C-alpha cells in the first residue's frame, strides 16, 4: 500500500476455528497486507488464474464475487489435505455495470469516467473452507463509496501514476486520494480486498455457520 492509512490500524483478529494453518488463496498484495496488519499468521497460495473465469450475463455483482471466491477456494483446497483456505474476490459496481480489474490504461480511463462524480458499490466475496473437515462458508460484503467529479487533470494524473493497475474499478482506495470516500461506517478494508471485520466474525462463528460441502474436494 502506498500509505499507512488508518484503515490498516486496529484491524480485528479472531482465533482460528481449527488447528489447521490459515492459507490465503490469493495473490493480492493488499489482502496479505491486511491479514498481516491484523496479526494473522498465514501462508500464501494463490489460486490459478483460470479459477477467476466464467461469465454469466444475468449474474449480479454480489453473486459474481461469491462464485469467484468459491472457485478460487476450490482450486487451492484441491492442493491441500489440511488448511483453512481463505479466498476472496472484489468487484466494483456502478449504474448496473460490473467493474473488474482494468486490462489497460484505456480500460482504466473508461472505468474512472463512469465512476467520476457517482456513488457506487464495492463488493467482496469471501470463502472460508476447512480442507481437513470439508466444511465451507461463503459471504459477501458491500461497501458504498462516493467519488468526486474528477477534473481532466486529476484523471490523467491518476492514469499516469499506474496505481489503477490490478485494482477492481481502476482505483485504489488505499492510495490516499481525497476524491474517494466510503459512506458512513461501511468497511474500508472490504474495498481494499478483504472485509476484516466480517472475516473476524466468520472465524468466530465458523463452526455454526459452515456447511459440509456437498461434494468433497480432495
Ligand atoms: C476497489 C479496490 C480494489 N483493490 C484490489 C483488491 C484486489 O487485489 C483487486 C481485485 O481483484 P481480485 O480478482 O479480487 O484479486 P486479485 O486478482 O488481486 O488476487 P487473487 O485473484 O489472486 O485473489 O483490486 C484495491 O487494492 N483497492 C481498491 O480500492
Automatic annotation (TrEMBL):
The lineage of its organism: Bacteria, Pseudomonadati, Planctomycetota, Planctomycetia, Pirellulales. The record marks 30, 90, 174 as: Important for substrate specificity. Keywords: Cytoplasm, Hydrolase, Nucleotide metabolism. This is dTTP/UTP pyrophosphatase. The keyword ATP-binding does not apply. It comes from Neorhodopirellula lusitana. It is found in: Cytoplasm. PANTHER family: BIFUNCTIONAL DTTP/UTP PYROPHOSPHATASE/METHYLTRANSFERASE PROTEIN-RELATED, BIFUNCTIONAL DTTP_UTP PYROPHOSPHATASE_METHYLTRANSFERASE PROTEIN-RELATED. Its EC number is 3.6.1.9. Belongs to the Maf family. YhdE subfamily. Coiled coil: none annotated. It catalyses: dTTP + H2O = dTMP + diphosphate + H(+); UTP + H2O = UMP + diphosphate + H(+). It comes from the Bacteria. Gene3D superfamilies: 3.90.950.10. Nucleoside triphosphate pyrophosphatase that hydrolyzes dTTP and UTP. May have a dual role in cell division arrest and in preventing the incorporation of modified nucleotides into cellular nucleic acids. The active site is at residue 89. Its cofactor is a divalent metal cation.
